[in-house]
Specification:
The chain is an alpha/beta fold and 657 residues long. It has 26 helices and 19 strands. The longest helix is centred in the N-terminal third of the chain and has 22 residues. The chain starts with 24 loop residues before the first helix and ends with a helix. Bound molecules: thiamine diphosphate (TPP).
Length: 657
């Protein structure tokens, strides 16, 4: 991507969180359009969260005009919608590097900027962190404001309600901005979302100084209440809050001790300025209910909110290039482009086929029907499909109840988000040995979304749990056949993990019942050289095995490679045969700490096998964001580098038997 230039902009070239305070509303309108165009171009080059960022633009501008991000603590829940904030807080220029290796993160990140007050990527954490900041301010006798921006879907998270509950106990000055665009990734679900709809449909606040009588005529309330409002003193001060007080429509936030203000048009900067100006004067918790439109200003994004939540590079072409001269430099790699289907698609199709044959199969998603490939299932079997919202903990325990009646729940959750339900996996599922199939999409590194989203811990956190079985298919046939075999006779908690990746494009036949516990030999050198290496590969790491074997053989090293689809249990027959090799190499798309290789080492130790093990996987650090191929390269996970390491080991380090 070429140099970014703001030369041809009218206001963006001057804009930051300080200068935008001096802009008038007409100038702000032009500025917002310029930011929209800039975000669109950067996402065209780098991919990213599109709809949410266009939707929150004016809201962010107004927050920055009314609060000072240097002193005030501004916390974005989930933080995929913090692009505008980044652009206006010292990252205008560097924003062009969004989601690239070493570039700007797609989420808030404390390490990236002094303006980012809390990092996130998983939904529902904002309010708790903000409350922590607010209580610390009180203890330290400081006077900064605390602002938490939370989406209508993140609001439904259990942890958000834990924070609201706690805020009721420790009420303190804090502004919660509820950014309500009616959408999670898919349309928001659940009773809270229906409740928000009711609030949304009550009169929108227009202006503080708007005449009370004008407003009262719009209110569907009886004359006694109208009289009460009319009698209220200092209307301008309290006008917002009385307008929709609990006595009128029963705002639940007020029952929790949080002053409700709204609903308010989240695209009207002037009105928002008035609202935020007013909230600053209140010495208590306040929730500003802002109504926004996801994808605002882009036709396609407005009309296809779900599809346009997050988009891949090259997907939304800007009408013209204002900031970058061309689309030159856009590179697509193996991990982002293929004619083949994704693992997600293979799963989505297979589970529909299987559910047609077995009516006991039910499917559960936690707010990710499209991401997990369950849209087709939801349409084919609406009564057997559950979107429980962003509620992974609940999804897991809910599945327990379903399973205990004899149903076969398939819980499809990204590897990273299942971390949230770790306790449920142990305490509710495994301890009671409840047969549930968990399908973990996005296992392994995911690329541009970075460390909040890499699914690199699941092999470690799952394999330590008693009673469970864990499988890692390395291609589409394996995925289909594991699914089929497990669901034929689901007896225990079972996990299948697969990556955000394309499959190989194999011809799919009938499902086959297979021995899913047996590791398959996928390569064996015909000639027996002096030096012998065994490779144990899990999941997608198989993609490097052939090339590694070729390099080793050219260097006169014999190699036998196994594809280890069952990570728990391990295949003890294969492991016992490792005494025949000089070096054992493990390949896993997981952190090395506690993962597959650790399990193999434990097996060797416990069974008296002393073999040197070269472990390939992710180190004991958080792998940053960036295109998948760059990350693998950066960490030395590719055929040449792995083969190099192996050769160094066998020629210089290990004793040849
Ligand atoms: C724990 C967790 N589960 C799932 C997700 C995936 N996810 C990312 S954004 C999102 C929707 C967020 O919707 P909302 O909070 O309303 O914000 P919006 O995008 O509408 O601005 C979901 C489900 C996540 N980030 N965290």
């Amino acid at each position: 991507m070429g140099e970014v230039s703001f030369e041809n902009t009218r206001y963006l070239k001057y804009a930051d969180y300080q200068t935008i305070r001096d802009f008038n509303y007409q100038q702000l309108q032009v500025l917002c359009q310029e930011i929209r165009d800039y975000i669109t171009e950067v996402i065209y080059h780098n991919g990213g969260h599109f709809g949410s960022n266009l939707g929150i633009l004016e809201l962010t501008v107004s927050i920055l005009r009314n609060f000072n991000p240097l002193y005030d603590k501004i916390v974005f829940d989930t933080s995929h919608q913090s692009y505008v904030y980044k652009i206006l807080t010292d990252r205008k220029e560097s924003f062009k590097t969004l989601r690239t290796l070493g570039g700007i993160s797609g989420f808030s990140k404390i390490k990236e900027s002094k303006f980012d007050h809390f990092g996130a990527g998983h939904a529902g954490t904002g309010l708790s962190a903000a409350l922590g900041y607010a209580k610390a301010r009180d203890i330290n006798k400081e006077d900064y404001n605390v602002v938490c921006i939370v989406g209508d879907a993140a609001l439904t998270c259990g942890v958000t309600f834990e924070a609201i509950n706690n805020l009721g106990q420790y009420p303190t000055k804090m502004v919660i901005v509820l950014n309500d665009n009616e959408y999670s990734i898919a349309r928001n679900v659940g009773a809270i979302s229906m409740y928000l709809k009711k609030l949304r449909n009550s009169p929108i606040i227009l202006k503080v100084e708007e005449r009370i009588d004008d407003i009262l005529t719009k209110l569907p309330v009886n004359s006694v209440i109208k009289e009460w409002i009319r009698d209220t003193k200092s209307w301008v001060e309290e006008g917002f809050t009385k307008l929709v007080s609990p006595s009128i429509i029963g705002v639940i936030f007020e029952e929790f001790g949080i002053q409700y203000i709204g609903p308010v048009d989240g695209h009207n900067v002037k009105l928002l300025d008035e609202v935020f100006g007013f909230t600053k004067s209140l010495n208590k918790p306040v929730i500003v209910h802002a109504i926004t439109q996801k994808g605002k200003g882009n036709n396609e994004a407005e009309n296809h909110s779900e599809r346009m939540h997050g988009v891949a590079k090259g997907k939304i072409k800007p009408s013209s290039f204002i900031y970058f001269s061309t689309d030159e430099g856009m590179k697509v790699d193996d991990f982002t482009k293929s004619v083949n289907k994704t693992y997600t698609e293979i799963f989505g199709e297979a589970i529909v086929e299987l559910a047609k044959r077995d009516e006991k199969i039910v499917a559960i998603t936690a707010a990710m029907p499209s991401g997990t490939g369950l849209v087709s299932f939801s349409k084919s079997f609406p009564d057997r499909f559950f979107d429980v919202g962003i509620a992974e903990e609940h999804a897991v325990i809910f599945a327990c109840g379903l399973a205990l009646t004899g149903l076969k729940p398939v819980v499809a959750i990204y590897s990273t988000f299942l971390q949230r339900a770790f306790d449920m996996l142990i305490h509710d599922v495994a301890l009671q040995n409840i047969p549930i199939l968990f399908v973990l999409d996005r296992a392994g590194i995911v690329g541009e979304d970075g460390p909040t989203h890499h699914g690199v811990f699941d092999l470690s956190y799952l394999r330590i749990i008693p009673n469970v079985e864990v499988f890692a298919p390395s291609d589409e046939l394996e995925l289909r056949n594991i699914l089929y075999t497990v669901l034929l006779d689901l007896k225990k908690p079972t996990f299948i993990r697969y990556p955000r990746d394309f499959v190989e494009g194999m011809r799919l036949g009938e499902f086959e019942k297979t021995n899913i516990y047996q590791w398959r030999m996928i390569h064996q050198t015909q000639h027996m050289f002096d030096r012998k290496v065994a490779i144990l590969s899990t999941g997608r790491m198989k993609r490097w095995v052939n090339d590694i074997c070729g390099i080793l053989e050219r260097a006169k090293v014999s190699v036998t490679a196994y594809n280890c689809i069952s990570v728990k249990p391990l295949d003890s027959n294969v492991l016992n045969s490792m005494v025949n090799y000089d070096l054992v190499v493990t390949l896993e798309d997981n952190v090395l700490a506690g993962g597959f290789s650790s399990y193999v080492l434990e097996f060797f130790n416990d069974n008296g096998i002393s073999r040197r093990v070269l472990r390939v996987g992710w180190p004991d650090e958080f792998v940053d964001h960036g295109p998948m191929n760059s990350l693998f390269k950066h960490y030395g996970i590719d055929s040449n580098e792995i083969a190099d390491k192996i050769l160094k080991e066998v020629f210089y380090k290990v004793e040849v038997f």
